[in-house]
Amino acid sequence: MKLALLTDLHANRDAVEAVVAHAAAQGAGRYAFLGDFVGYGAEPGWVVDFVAEHVRRGAVAVLGNHDSAVVRGPAPTMVAQAREVVAWTRSRLTDAQLAFLAALPPSVVEDDRLYVHANAYAPTDWGYIVTRIEAIRSLHATEARVTFCGHVHEPRLFHLTATGKAGEFMPVPDVPIPLSGQRQWLVIPGSAGQPRDGNPAACYAMFDLPTRTLTYHRVPYDNEAAAAKIRAAGLPPRLAERLLDGD
Amino acid sequence: MAIDAAALAAGVPPPLAQGVVIDGFRLDEPLHQGGMATLWRVTRLDGSDPLPIIMKVPRIKGGDDPTTVVGFEVEQMILPALAGPHVPRYIAKGDFTGQPYIVMERIGGDSLRARLDRAPLPVDEVVDIGWKVATALHDLHRQHVVHLDVKPSNILFRQSGDAVLVDFGLSRHDRLPDLLEEEFELPMGTAPYMSPEQVQFVRNDPRSDLFSLGVMLYHFTTGQRPFGNPSSVRGLRKRLFHDPAPPRALRADCPPWLQEIVLRCLEVDPARRHQSGAQLAFELQNPEQVVLTQRAENRPAGGIGRSMKRWFAAMGAEPKASGATVQTARSPIVLAAVDVASAEPPLLEAIQVAVQRVVQTEPGARLACLAVMKTNYIGMDELMDADGRSRHVNLLVQLKHWARPVVQALTAAKTLAPHEQDARITFHVIEAPDPAAAIVEYARKNQVDHIVMGARSSSMLRRYLGSVSAQVVAESDCTVTVVRAPDAAH
Hints:
The complex is a heterodimer. Chain A is 34% helix and 23% strand.
């Protein structure tokens, strides 16, 4: 069974469609969505419906800070650019879509895996995992062998041994990484809907459950179309530009 | 022996003994008890692996032993990612949640360790070991892995003669996480063989393996270790500052070219070593083409001046490695197969330009210029006569003349000394009845990355004589650039 992990979809329908087509071709049997389905992009309704449909079929989905902001109002820490889009997004969602977001759990545990948007130590305070320090803190806060999270838009892999030695790795696309049971792992697939590592191709990761092998992927998609929709919606032009240059 | 069901249920692996079955593999016989692991000859009960296989089981020494545990974790990650004749074929692995193990192909025969006791070895034997191991290392590096523990006990040979590298517990795969990076405060490796950069905690330079191979070749040549067997970090660091004694000072019949090669492997700055395993293997197979430098001289070892020089080089050798993939790709062997005897001048010129472009883009590239002297299938002895010899020499002269502009362009563009430029370009004339087959075979044997050659300009000639380049393109393993002269008619 292959589990496709998508995070930070950010209302980018074009990216999500491309990623899901890629994942299906790779044999994905199940999906996990790690939050931030809305915000920034022009098609929040489509993305929420898409995730909701997958959840009905057994997919995992957790709450992101943008999802929370649309339902409950932005947290004081939310950046200005994100804040601008909250009200617009809310106006585009139906009651049913808002109810779906409102009902999302902050984290899900399944066997030895934890799914959470930001981190394991304070899931709804939305602190970022930037360095090994936060990664260690998050891994210490869970029993799970493998944590899947998003929030940070760049792909990354952290690992921690029982003796407290932590490592950080910049994954290479399409190279399968066996996740040894000897250590804890923190997997950040990178953003599907708004990549920020200088590469505009959408990010996701695939985890093969029987072999515990993780593969990061990059999927090129029609980012010009997605950017054009953002401009047409009257959203801040910078949000369109960053889809083109991936930063 | 029955397996203790209660122990299994409790997650405690059964004690290892003859007859015990682990995940469908029956332990038949303990083969070797090393410091880190025990090897068992095993049989796969479902019969799907009829060839000899072994199970490697880590020795966990009471409680936490990060060295063994992490090293085994690393090998479990890297071995399955490797393929080809120069590594044992990976079959299965067991996680630490149960009985940790790796099952792999059994490579028969002794490791090179046994031959250390016989050192010094005959020069031919040293060279044979050297090029085979260098070839195996190149293959490993092309698969993104730096071994980092190259030593005689980790090298075996197949019946075919291919060298096989084993034990990837300290290795680094440049596309997978480095599980050892943060693990230890001491340099990792085996003291006599460790490269200077490994002493400085650099773990991603494939040229480290060439240094270790150099230590082995030095030992096999002279019967002595170039840097002893230090037991402290301070002792290890000495190799940063002290040149080893020249092999010829220890063994009078060591040829200067072998000393040149071995001491080049042992350079403190990786940039002054051979830039890839293939380039080292190439020199070992073409000793007459080795350019002799100061290294080949029979000078006395040490001296303050020498130490200072090495020390300055060591200062320059601080981490700037870029991983096995990049380093290997940056140091290709380019083969210019040139029909200097019969190709038209415009084509010869076009090949010159194409070769220059390819070689100049990669400062680590090395160029082998090859001319094939076509012989008849029968009457090979004709070559031995004076006429054959003069044709051979004549081709070599023409080939060198053809390459002059390339050599000049490289020397002008680079900061290296002229003699080091020379070492980057070699000339070869081979005699064969089938030029295309000879070029393909030559490229394969020397692990050539890129062949540049000309195409017959006239389609009429191609139709009647066949196309050598088409055959090379179809049959070779590497990239082939086929050059055509611009057609004056257009």
